[in-house]
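ZP: hey, is the copper (II) ion complex queued? I don't see it on the tracker
AM: it wasn't, my bad. submitting now with these inputs:
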Amino acid sequence: MKDVRTAAVSAVIALLCSGAAQANGQAVAPLQDRAGQAVGEVRFTESPHGLLVYVSAKGLPPGPKGIHIHQIGTCADGDKGFVASGAHLNPSGKKHGLMNPEGPDAGDLPNLIVHADGSVEVELFTTLASLTGLGGRAALLDDNGAAVVIHENRDDHITQPIGGAGARRFCGVVKATP
Ligand SMILES: [Cu+2]
């Protein structure tokens, strides 16, 4: 009896460990500009009520810039403006905009405010998304992945489809941290 119980406990521990190896609750999206130059990174940390989003980037025009999670994990088409990353992460089909009564979509985030020297560093939090579906929230690390996109202009948080944020300047594919 004792041996059976020990074996069961070992099996549970093995399961927990294999889960941890697949996703340790952290992910990173190295940011690139349209020419493929490294311009910063976004780090994600899973937590009980949402996703912590740390952003560090340089080389942007000063002022407010829209930043979103897009639904396809590719940044391979910088020469075409990163359109291959698709629309926003939005499995529940909500309207875009943190201030939209019919929103927000799961990829929505507050604006970045870029300093005069073109740099930005900030920690954001979203209750709308997750890395692997924790709490039933939209998953970044699903079959087609996800990308973080920083746009040319401010997101007004209400206009469809992206709050008037304009062209896609920076892009980063979200990858689980080993
Ligand atoms: Cu966007």
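AM: back. The chain has a mean pLDDT of 91.
ZP: great, adding it to the tracker
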